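FAQ
Q: What does a multi-component entry look like?
A: The components come first, one per line:
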Amino acid sequence: MLASIPVRLWEHAAGWEAGLTQDTTVLEVSVWRGTALDGAYELFEVPAHENQTILDVVSWIQQYADASLTYRFACRVGMCGSCAMMVNDQPRWTCRTHVKKVLKDRRVRIGPLRNLPVIKDLAVDMDRFFDKWVAAGGAHVPSAGRGDPIPAVDPEESARVKASAGIECINCSICYAACDTVAGNPDYLGPAALQRAWTLLNDAKHDARAQILDAVSGTGGCHNCHSMGSCTVFCPNDLDPMSAIAGLKRETARGFFRRRGG
Amino acid sequence: MLDLRLYMLQRITALIMAPLTLGHIAVMIYAVQGGLSAEEILGRTQGSLFWFLFYGSFVVAVSLHASIGLRVILHETMGLAGRTLSAATLGVAAGLLFMGVQALIAVTWPVSAI
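Then the predicted structure of the entire assembly, as tokens:
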């Protein structure tokens, strides 16, 4: 069903100024409406602009076509990690995804993130994602108190380099949505939580490093990863969770022999 | 579903199988090129402690390795979990072990004892 759209005059004017023809000024946007159990894609016609992100498109629909559309965003500049959605069935940060990059014959399909329960429309329940983040030992435990001297950190030191590799994670859950192992094994902690665990394992300022190897060695732990690499391919910040998980596998295997060797 | 214990067991059995597989292929090529008959091969393997241990460890490693691998597939593609998954894993391991031990006895057990 095609939704009726109250297109404002200035929207069209922007299109004409950009030198676009009538045919190319409208995008056909399919948006998921409803929950995971009960819903369908609904088609909206959205005015096209020269510079336009997927988040702009979703915001336009919510502001001018259907105010009941539910979605989540905050910073709009790729820092907060809250606007991730499935765009043409691939997880993306929508505020930094240009429409032109994903448009297929004027059409684009926008859905809620995979592998997480849908609350409504494009908003998913992130509880499971963050619960696993904590279960993997991801909460920071300081190794020094407020009154203690600040220990020096050498940015070139081997462990620090490994820790620094993952600290730009914005917890957008794109890697979690991209992971086929999570899709098949809902108990699996997932790439973001395990990368966080690897980061803290290599962080000299974290005081619970010994517990991390136990936290990632359970039935949903790092050993379930098949190294398919979707997490690393789709990470919008170019991080490498797959290698972080490989690091956890190596360390847990070493720990396995160390414990048996006394 | 796959914890550290099962992961290590699968990796260690893979390490055991790698040289055994190469040894098995090498023996097959040697036997075929040399024109050995089945009787001649069995004459050398039956009653041999070396070949009993060689293929015996192979059978045990395969049973453990394959059942853990199938456990992952059964869980992720068919949704088996809990006791059902454990029973399926043990069932596969027992089946492979049974068939493997049968072949092992046929090839390496002393003729007089069969």
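Q: Is there any commentary attached?
A: Sometimes. For this entry: The first strand of chain A starts at residue 26 and ends at 34.
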